[in-house]
Amino acid sequence: MKLTFLGSGGGRFSAISQRRMTGGLRIDNLGGKNYHIDPGPGALIRTYQFGFDPRNLSGVIVSHSHTDHYNDAEILIEAMTRGMTKSMGTIVGSESVLNGYEQWGPCISSYHQTKPDKIVLKPGKYSQLNNVKIKGTRTEHGDPTGVGFQIDYRGFKVSYTSDTAYFDGLADEHKGADILIASVLRPGNRTINGHMCSRNFVDLINEVKPKVAVMTHLGLKMISSNPVTEAKKISKRTGVKTIAAFDGLSFNVNYNNPKRFRLISLKDVQSSIHSTDHSLYESERKNSYQLSFKHNEFDELAMVRKRR
Ligand SMILES: [Zn+2]
To answer: What distance in Å separates the CA atoms of residue 112 and residue 99, rounded to the nearest whole number?
Structure first.
């Protein structure tokens, strides 16, 4: 499994200014399937820019009805369904995202909902998404139906808080996470309605005790106050390896020892993509799950477990 941040910015102003990119997050080769999570403005472009292919997605997951999370969802759905010609893939979204709730959403048109399967995520509700279990988790945020989620792949758990304030019980929602990814908008103690600051993230990490924590969805104040230093402070206070996401951050997850990984900083390949067919082919090849299949990485966890 590989995690790639096609953007590490979040919040209205970070998104409008594009001080950090807002393309969301990709999980590739999760049991041989690829997913795009919270594709904000620029997600399609960032996909190509970092050498991925939107056509090899098996799912698009949208946590709530804010532009910095859903903006590019429909075009990715078109990529996933071969331009809406094939019934394939799954859209996973909150009630508001798929059906609309009060003034929120729907963020994906009924036309775009005709081809893929649909899963409405609700806090505490488990669904089967291909070969993984996905549970909705509670948030306290502007969109009342907004959710985070926890993915369970044969006992290995990746949790994503999405946008939420810290509240009593947030840790219970993400209990057991091996990797905890959180939206941490502001540094230090600077709380803001509906979002976490670093201090909140420290509390959450101390309660959840993941193997690795990643903070993303960084707001302007966080970006200006050096997120890397901030993450180091959090690591020190919690004893849990904490990473501040940056645009193009990628790492392969080692299921047996999640703490061991090498951070990769993806290069912008967009310019070469438009100049030669050769490099387009190369970058597609590198990231296609067909290739992982060929290399027997298709079910990497099963293989690792068997070997032990
Ligand atoms: Zn939001």
So the answer is: 12
